[in-house]
């Protein structure tokens, strides 16, 4: 599949395959191992995990066991959201690399601007400290790119005003009905690649009548419309499934959508997680 090997170029020249395989909520052990192994077997070359998913060890094992040359796979992990100091970030990165059993990461992200159990907390200084530690790791060559996740415009500006390296990527919840126009526009203006997590709105988008109609028009599945939409918007979708037929289905998105259809999908402003 061409879309599995097509790449985006980050602003430092690093290439990221356009579709990544997500592993959020994929349980550690056999399920995470088998899912990643199936994704790699079916051509995915971009795998996304996080310390908070607690499946880095299984994900890393599947990557190593695949025998695919390391440089052919783009691997992302994330700093846990409660870690907001320089030294703790360096330590957490070392732990992530032990868990994964890899020599380097392709992308390392601050998982969220605040701890998940304190959403909205002002962690400006902590984010600066964590990001400075990530800049140090980046300069050491142990990560090829650094960035953030779940950051809005003010969170991004805080990093850009106080740190050296403009984030290479911002991974956000992005799907039809939640295309985060303001953040997306700001990221595009500053060459920050937007990665789209939950491109299927954790599955809820698949029963939306507009998306079903669009799927009929293009002779595709609703999931393929959702994933293609992300690519048409210039973002890197990170679909996830534990079932091989869906892992394959989600990668078969080598088709173009008409501009007017994308514009129509842009007008859907309800978060589909609330539709059902
Ligand atoms: P499963 O693992 O049973 O396939 P998102 O990526 O937006 O978070 O959505 C993930 C959810 O959507 C998971 O529950 C996954 O379940 C389901 N899913 C993934 N791909 C498909 C697909 N092609 N068709 C239907 N459901 C899918």
Q: What's the Cα radius of gyration? A: 18 Å
For this structure, the CATH topology is TIM Barrel
What is the number of strand segments? 10
Intertermini distance: 32 Å
Name of the CATH architecture: Alpha-Beta Barrel
How helical, in percent, are the residues?
Answer: 40-55%
For the record, what is the CATH homologous superfamily label? NADP-dependent oxidoreductase domain
Main β sheet profile: 8 strands, parallel
Task: Tell me the series of helices and strands, N- to C-terminal.
Answer: HEEEHEHEHEHEHEHEHHEHH
Write the layout of secondary structure elements.
Blueprint: H1 2-5, E1 7-9, E2 15-17, E3 21-22, H2 30-41, E4 46-48, H3 56-65, E5 74-79, H4 86-100, E6 107-110, H5 124-140, E7 146-149, H6 153-162, E8 169-173, H7 181-189, E9 193-197, H8 209-218, H9 222-232, E10 236-238, H10 244-249, H11 259-267
Parallel strand pairs: 3-4, 4-5, 5-6, 6-7, 7-8, 8-9, 9-10
Antiparallel strand pairs: 1-2
Helix pairs in contact: 2-3, 3-4, 4-5, 5-6, 8-9
Bound molecules: adenosine-2'-5'-diphosphate.
Residues 22, 198-203, 206, 223, 239-243, 246, 249-250 line the site of adenosine-2'-5'-diphosphate.
Question: What does this protein structure show overall?
Answer:
With 276 residues, the chain is α/β, with parallel strands linked by helices. The protein has a single domain (2-271), classed as TIM Barrel. 41% of the residues lie in helices and 14% in strands. It is built from 11 helices and 10 strands. The protein has helices at 2-5, 30-41, 56-65, 86-100, 124-140, 153-162, 181-189, 209-218, 222-232, 244-249, 259-267, and strands spanning 7-9, 15-17, 21-22, 46-48, 74-79, 107-110, 146-149, 169-173, 193-197, 236-238. The strands form 2 sheets. An 8-stranded parallel β-sheet has the order 3-4-5-6-7-8-9-10. A two-stranded antiparallel ribbon has the order 1-2. α2 packs parallel to α3, α3 crosses α4 (86-100) and α5 crosses α6. It is globular. The two termini are 32 Å apart. Adenosine-2'-5'-diphosphate (A2P) binds at residues 22, 198-203, 206, 223, 239-243, 246, 249-250.
